[in-house]
Amino acid sequence: MISSVLPTYNRAPLSFVKGEGSWLVEADGRRFLDLGAGIAVNTLGHANPDLAAVLKAQADTLWHVSNLYTIPAQQALADKLVEETFADTCFFTNSGTEAAELAIKMARKYWFDKGQPERIEIITFDGCFHGRSSAAIAASGSEKMVKGFGPVLEGFVHLPFDDLDAVRAAVGDATAAIMIEPIQGEGGIRPLPDATLKGLREICDETGTLLILDEVQCGVARSGKLFAHEYAGITPDIMMVAKGIGGGFPLGAVLATEEAASGMVAGTHGSTYGGNPLGCAIGLKVMEITSDTAFLAEVNRKASLFSQGLEGLVAVYPDLFETVRGTGLMLGIKCKVAPAEIVAAGYDAGILTVPAADNVVRLLPALNIPDEDIAEALKRLDAAAQAVSQAKE
Q1: How far does Cα 392 stand from its chain's mean position?
Q2: Best exposed site among 165, 199, 246, 267 by fewest CB in 10 Å?
């Protein structure tokens, strides 16, 4: 008999009832150090008092009115995002998947309004993940994502990761946009080299193609910059944001230049819940905290501390681990064993990690994780690795 919750997840046998900073408490009282942060969502940890205070204050005032009316909290968050980024305008969603849908629509509508309706193709890359809607799975193109869900939406061109020559050859009269993650998350914590991102910007400038960046997982200070593309010194035309911007509250956004967004006039897109007062009040607080230069400096200091410890772990267990990769506190350990083995051993050691493609275990802690919790995380990861190593002897 099917469960009352649709069984689309392979869930771990854990049920958490409370969160405190970088820790989660299981129903039986066990404490787990959380290096997943809700898959890069809990930017400032669990039950963050600053975010809780904002949520409570807004909940006592106004929850929802719909986008039929002006929403002051939404305007304030949009103003903050425009102030801190390349963008001239924002549209708020509830998730990264919804942001991907709008980004794709925006790019195609742009060319339609320019009198070039044939420019519908979106170039994407191996290992990408842009969500699970019909358009987003078509964008990924992988058999795992699209099998059984046909017919697949047309208009996507899939290219190898980090191959500028392939991009130059693929861009043509039908190309609307290039869509890419500056750091692949689900694809295995694969940072795109700065030179490649600069090259993509140059190709877009030369051909008029729009550049869409998916910073759903790597954005909002996760990389050590407010947004990961800042390392390459370029800006996109359209950017998708979600996960960390809500600090645990469902919130996403599409940021765009005035030019790229020119086709999105009244009636072309909408959302019932997107940009509601609750989400935007929290999002504004998250942005105020994460955009601070001192906060970003601390993220990078903690990232260096954590990375050094992980490199030591790789050196101690060369039969299990190959390398550490990533940027900021978006880190991964490439494994020589199935990542699921490390994740499962972590449960026994009281630590939570997240598997990814390319044999990688993701480490996505809260960005304000204390140094003592980093030290404890390294101890527990060592215990997990030791258990896996001993099981193989």
Answers
A1: 34
A2: 267
Of 350, 342, 347, residue with least CA distance to 373: 350
The first and second tokens of residue 309, run together, are 């410890």
pLDDT in tens, 250-305: 999 999 999 999 999 999 999 999 999 999 999 999 999 999 999 999 999 999 99
Token pair, residue 59, equals 């909940």
> 3-state DSSP helix/strand/coil percent for the chain, to nearest 5?
40, 20, 40
**Crossing angle of helices 277-290/293-316, nearest 10°?**
80
The pLDDT mean for the chain works out to 97
Contacts (Cβ under 8 Å, ≥6 apart) of 218: 181, 182, 183, 185, 227, 228, 327, 330
Q: Which two tokens stand for residue 68?
A: 């039929």
Q: pLDDT digit string (tens) for 333-368?
A: 999 999 999 999 999 999 999 999 999 999 999 999
Q: Parallel, antiparallel, or unpaired: how do β-strands 16-20 and 183-184 relate?
A: unpaired
Are the CB atoms for 57 and 273 separated by under 8 Å?
Answer: no
pTM greater than 0.90 (yes/no): yes
Pairing of strands 360-363, 330-335: antiparallel
HSE-CB at 134 with a 13 A cutoff on CA atoms is 8
Question: 377, 353 in Cβ contact below 8 A?
Answer: no
Cα 15 to Cα 27: distance, rounded to the nearest angstrom: 6
> 3-state class of 148 per DSSP?
coil
SS3 353: coil
Cβ burial, residue 175 (10 Å; 0-12/13-18/19+): buried
